[in-house]
Structures are given as C-alpha cells and as structure tokens.
C-alpha cells in the first residue's frame, strides 16, 4: 500500500478572485475549478466558503479557501517566515530568471537567486502572505543527490541525538554562505 501522489495542497486566501488573478498572471497557472458551499461537507458545519483550484503543472494542484466568516488570516508567530513555503520546480535557470524578471516587473519583491548546489531558487510572497519558491535543478543535480542519499540516515541520526547541524552535507551551501 503506497500513496500515489499529492491530490492537492490547500491554503487559505484573503480573496479568491485576487488569488486566481495573481497566480494566472504571475506564475502562468490555469484556473481549473471552483467549489462553493454554505456548509462544510466533511464536518457539516454551516460555514460558507469558496474553494479554488489551480493547475501547478504535471498533475499538481494548488488550492485555496476563502473563508469570509472567519477572523483574518494569521501565521504562526513562533515559526520564522522562511520556513513555511511551497516550492515549484521550473525547467532550468533561464526559466527561473525569466520568472524573476516577470515578477519584479509586476512589482513583486524577489529574493535570490539562492544557490542550494543541487538546485537554485528565488523566493517571494503571494498576495495572501504565503511564501513561494521557484527552483530549478543544477546541471550536476544527479551526482549531488547521490552524495546526499549516501549520508541522509547518518545526518538524521546525528541531528536526532544532538539537535546540531551535521556537517555531512555542509558543501551544499558553502558557496552561498561564504559570499563567493
């Protein structure tokens, strides 16, 4: 018994129409479905909502709920803003840079390109305050992934014991963090 794939990932949004417009304009996602009810199907509680679905490529679906009767959205104040995010893969660095250019032309502040060795990323926020990452593979990704695969269990065990960053894969961010 195995999970086949993620059916969809759902987040909350402030405004469903604004969210659809933003994702279609800035990330070329197609708006594929909307569902709205006055009662929640799983809990049966009365709570009107709009549930929208966007095509995030390759069968991946990104969904949002607009909940007009609930208090304004918040975020966990104990979790740094860089932790909670969703990352989308793009084909290559040229595509990554084209997205960066488009986003900045649309007035969106973009952080990066950040060098993670196995991939390279840019970061920005959607209109709901969700952090988004676009990542492209490094040409040497396969060989680096093999190196990481070889040490993953040792790293996890060491972290579990010490709660300090194991150095098995320190090479990954050496260039990025040294400022070279």
From TrEMBL:
A GO molecular-function annotation: ferrous iron binding
UniProt keyword list: Aromatic hydrocarbons catabolism, Dioxygenase, Iron, Metal-binding, Oxidoreductase
Co-factor requirement: Fe(2+)
UniProt xrefs under CDD domains: VOC
Span of domain VOC: 5-137
Pfam families linked: Glyoxalase (PF00903)
Gene3D superfamilies referenced in this protein's UniProt entry, alphabetically: 2,3-Dihydroxybiphenyl 1,2-Dioxygenase, domain 1 (3.10.180.10)
Family indicated by similarity: Belongs to the extradiol ring-cleavage dioxygenase family.
Name of the protein in its database record: VOC family protein
């Amino acid at each position: 018994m195995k999970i086949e794939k993620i059916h969809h990932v759902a987040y909350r949004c402030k405004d469903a129409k604004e969210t659809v417009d933003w994702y279609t304009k800035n990330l070329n996602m197609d708006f594929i479905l909307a569902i709205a009810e006055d009662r929640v199907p799983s809990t049966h509680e009365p709570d009107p909502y709009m549930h929208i679905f966007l095509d995030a490529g390759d069968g991946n679906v990104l969904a949002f709920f607009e909940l007009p009767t609930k208090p304004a959205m918040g975020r966990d104040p104990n979790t740094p803003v860089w932790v909670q995010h969703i990352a989308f893969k793009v084909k290559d660095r040229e595509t990554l840079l084209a997205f960066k250019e488009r986003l900045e032309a649309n007035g969106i502040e973009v952080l990066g390109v950040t060098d993670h060795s196995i991939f390279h990323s840019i970061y920005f926020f959607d209109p709901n305050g969700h952090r988004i990452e676009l990542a492209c593979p490094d040409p040497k990704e396969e060989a680096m992934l093999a190196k990481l695969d070889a040490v993953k269990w040792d790293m996890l065990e060491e972290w579990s014991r010490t709660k300090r960053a194991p150095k098995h894969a320190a090479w990954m961010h050496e260039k990025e963090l040294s400022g070279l």
